Amino acid sequence: MAASINLHKISRFANLAIPSMAVLFFLGGHFVSFYFHFLTVTFLLLTVVNLFYLYIQKKHTILRNFGILGQARYILESIGPEMRQYLFANDTEERPFNRIERSEIYRKAKGIDSASSFGSQLDFDNSEIKVRHSMYPVDRENIKDFALTFGEERGLENTYTINKPYIISAMSYGALGKNAVQALTRGARMAGIPINTGEGGTPKYHMDEGGELIFQMGTAKFGVRNDDGSLNDEKLRKLCAEPSIKMIEIKLSQGAKPGKGGLLPKEKITQEISDLRGVPLGQDVVSPAHHIECMCKQSTVAFIKRVQDVCMIPVGVKICIGKTSEFRDMVREMKAQNVFPDFLAIDGAEGGTGAAPKAFMDGYGMPLMPALFSANKILTEEGVRGRMKIIAAGKLINSSKQFIALALGADAIYSARGFMLSLGCIQAMLCGNNTCPVGITTHDPSLQKGLIVEEKAKRIANYVKGLEHDFYEMLAASGIKDAKDINMDQLYIPDDTALADQINALLKNANL
Amino acid sequence: MKPTQQIVSWVLQLGIIALLAPAAYYKLTGHNESTALFTTLGMEPGGRYIIGFLEATACALLLTPNSAVHGAILTLGIMIGAIIAHLSKIWFDSMFAYFSIALVIASSIVIYLRRKQIKSIARMLN
């Protein structure tokens, strides 16, 4: 048997040694030099703490059994995440984003060349979806510039056109602090892309920065609600008249917590946020699981119609897909009522959030790739794919993942965490605690002070520039002259991916 | 903390400072009585400065809500040392001995009231 350390024995020795040391140092202090009493006092205090751990406190087994040495376990555990991230986790094993993925974003955001050397660190054997290139690449000047117009299907007067396939996904003021919102919005404006406001009530800071905004109406409808949680048409109409509001997004569900409403922990509710949202201080704000108006497919589609009639600007819907059959039913209901959202944002279950119950974050919803494939296929089969645009969301932070999403049917890309990483996010995973060390998801001024809006806005713009550069390079390499022509033929999909499973399932049962 | 506990804690903190600040001042300026005391203990002048400096630090820490608990822990340590000195070397020949007992009690109460603010430990155990 291998030699092992008997920690229990050592701790029993320590529990005896600590008071003995106090006695020993006392003797030293008394007979040799009074200076020894500095140690006497220290060990006396340690003895008291140790007795408290061993005999008085009842919450922690390890401390009751092992005493003060047991505290080492808690110390090590508390510094574990940092140790793993900085020292021990290898480049490809962290989640949600590993070091390779993160550093690609950091490099783009800082405008540093992202060429890498020697070889890919990813697994090529069987589990990676890849993009197929063409033997006949095209030149950049032969590729049509990207343009996507929302609302053209309905012949709206106020359509909205984006010239880059990127949109900053929903992050509210509340989830994010003031500086982060300002930097994101300013960066988006510099880059010429829109930003989703998240469900944070009247998007004051977004509007002050003069960005092009997609107003998200969450299930609690902060900013446009009546007291009972129903839609206040007048408030919405007034908001839509703001020149910066370009589109409305009705959030039906969210990838990180599908089937549940938004959640803002009480730690992050300041007086200002409480005023903007009309919620009380000192308690968690939990949005309802569904819009009060949306009880079934008929009422949901009717609600979309109602919002479209009030707004006169493009109105889309954000969902995380759970049951594809339900989705098909809803599409059929849209056909029946002849009401279509101007865009459909498909949020994968891998989507991020500031705070969500663990069970929902980890265990609910369809991942993006199969969900996106299914939605696109169902819309095509129902003959209504041309009636709306699709925006894909869910861990789409780097160029190749985004290209894959476009190939699976998306017209544009939503990303939130990609832009957070550009702002300097270090994936400390403290978004719900108001203690974000880089000042993004916190309202603590002493943590926000490091986030210089002007400087980080440039990072956002750089990141978009880097993504766009890759986008056209990838189109060129794939021999595609118009982004609209990207399709699934561009993909190499190994058999044991979730996507391959979903494709096979849908092939087997066309009505799924 | 409840408002009454807040008040009790602040009254005790200010009381501790009222006793500790003059003590620190006399030690650091080399007042006769202090010098005599530390000569008896065999710590003159190094120990006098160290203790004086620690007492001054404790006073400063006791002044802000976030650091008060640490100031109280430091006070407790110094005062246990003082009691050891009184017990073993100089006996209870002056009111200072009773001061130190009072300070041990007061700082213990402050530590108890503010125990949740010992952040390093609280965070580790949560």
Gyration radius over CA of chain B: 15 Å
User: How many separate domains make up the residues of chain B?
Assistant: 1
Beta-strand portion of chain B reads under 5%
Please work out how many helical segments of chain B DSSP would assign: 6
Averaged pLDDT of chain A, please? 92
Major sheet summary line of chain B: none
CATH superfamily of the largest domain in chain A: Aldolase class I
Q: How many β-strand stretches of chain A? A: 14
In whole angstroms, the N-to-C terminal distance of chain B is 19 Å
Shape, per Cα inertia axes of chain A:
globular
Given helix and strand content, the structural type of chain A is alpha/beta
Radius of gyration of chain A: 27 Å
Shape label of chain B: elongated
Order of helices and strands of chain B: HHHHHH
Specify the number of helices of chain A. 18
Weakly predicted, low-confidence segments of chain A: none
Termini gap of chain A:
57 Å
In helices, the fraction of residues of chain A equals 40-55%
Fold blueprint:
The complex is a heterodimer of chains A (512) and B (126).
Chain A: H1 7-31, H2 37-56, H3 61-66, H4 71-88, H5 99-110, E1 130-131, E2 148-150, E3 160-162, E4 166-168, H6 178-191, E5 195-196, H7 204-208, E6 213-217, H8 233-240, E7 245-251, E8 263-264, H9 271-277, E9 285-286, H10 297-311, E10 315-319, H11 324-337, E11 343-347, H12 358-363, H13 368-381, E12 389-393, H14 399-407, E13 412-415, H15 417-423, H16 445-448, H17 453-478, E14 491-492, H18 498-508
Parallel strand pairs in A: 4-13, 5-6, 6-7, 7-10, 10-11, 11-12, 12-13
Antiparallel strand pairs in A: 1-14, 2-3, 8-9
Chain B: H1 3-29, H2 32-41, H3 46-62, H4 68-90, H5 95-113, H6 119-125
Helix pairs in contact in B: 1-3, 1-5, 3-4, 4-5
